[in-house]
């Protein structure tokens, strides 16, 4: 299996051989010992023959590619079987309570995330799009992972791991921390959104697109 934009390898299956593509030396250095081989390359120019892999995957990465269409075409070219892309659906972020506290962040994420139709068209073949529920104890660090734990978003380390904060105007992050802190302390947040703490899952913006050869 080919994993493109693999990062530190957090999402790779452990029951099969995976070859990872990751252009960042920092991320490659964070891969665990015993993990699959990681190659420095870019999604838009995969150094492999056509159909070299049984399958390919790309998790939470396509919004960072320089040329989305070229990267998707390369994924499809390199895999003779299914291609799975996990990504975020920007318009669905409007349902998240965070928009009331950090509209600039939601807008920044929506600008970065590609349209689902564009990804499906870029992959071609027989395409399925599935909603992926987010569990209440999700260990990933994207914003919606904390839908039931608003206090975690006040932690500087948590926000530092969310790249979209780097795209908001000056002062927006400080205002967010101040406003959310005040509302949690006063109980106002729980009056408005307390039921979110009880949701075992949240069907937010996370989507899985699977393309099979047509």
What does this entry look like structurally?
The chain has helices at residues 25-29, 68-78, 103-112, 116-123, 156-160, 172-186, 188-193, and strands at 2-4, 19-21, 38-39, 56-59, 83-88, 126-131, 134-135, 201-202, 206-212. Helix content is 28%, strand content 16%. It has 214 residues and is an alpha/beta fold. The model has no long low-confidence stretch (mean pLDDT 95). The two termini are 19 Å apart. The strands form 2 sheets. A 7-stranded mixed beta sheet has the order 3-2-1-4-5-9-6, with helices on one face. Strands 7-8 form a two-stranded antiparallel sheet. The chain is built from 7 helices and 9 strands, in the order E-E-H-E-E-H-E-H-H-E-E-H-H-H-E-E. The chain is elongated, with a radius of gyration of 18 Å.
Structural class: alpha/beta
Note poorly predicted spans.
Answer: none
Q: What is the CA–CA distance across the termini?
A: 19 Å
Order of helices and strands: EEHEEHEHHEEHHHEE
Specify the number of helices: 7
Global Rg: 18 Å
Query: What proportion of the residues form beta strands (DSSP E)?
Result: 15-25%
Query: Number of DSSP strands?
Result: 9
| Main sheet summary | 7 strands, mixed
């Amino acid at each position: 299996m080919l994993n493109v934009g693999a990062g530190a390898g957090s999402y790779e299956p452990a029951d099969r051989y995976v070859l990872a593509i990751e252009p960042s030396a920092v991320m490659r250095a964070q891969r665990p010992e015993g993990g699959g081989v990681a190659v420095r390359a870019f999604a838009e120019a995969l150094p492999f023959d056509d159909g070299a892999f049984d399958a390919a995957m790309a998790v939470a990465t396509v919004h960072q590619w320089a040329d989305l269409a070229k990267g998707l075409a390369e994924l499809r070219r390199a895999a003779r079987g299914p291609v799975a892309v996990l990504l975020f659906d920007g318009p669905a972020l409007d349902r998240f309570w965070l928009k009331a506290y950090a509209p600039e962040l939601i807008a920044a994420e929506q600008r970065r995330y590609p349209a689902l139709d564009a990804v499906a068209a870029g992959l071609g073949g027989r395409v399925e799009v599935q909603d992926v529920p987010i569990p209440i104890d999700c260990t990933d660090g994207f914003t919606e992972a904390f839908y039931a734990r608003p206090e975690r978003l006040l932690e500087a380390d948590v926000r530092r791991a969310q790249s979209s904060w780097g795209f908001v105007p000056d002062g927006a992050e400080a205002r967010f921390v101040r406003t959310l802190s005040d509302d949690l302390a006063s109980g106002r947040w729980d009056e408005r959104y307390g039921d979110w703490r009880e949701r075992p899952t949240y069907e937010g913006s996370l989507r899985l697109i699977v393309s099979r050869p047509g």
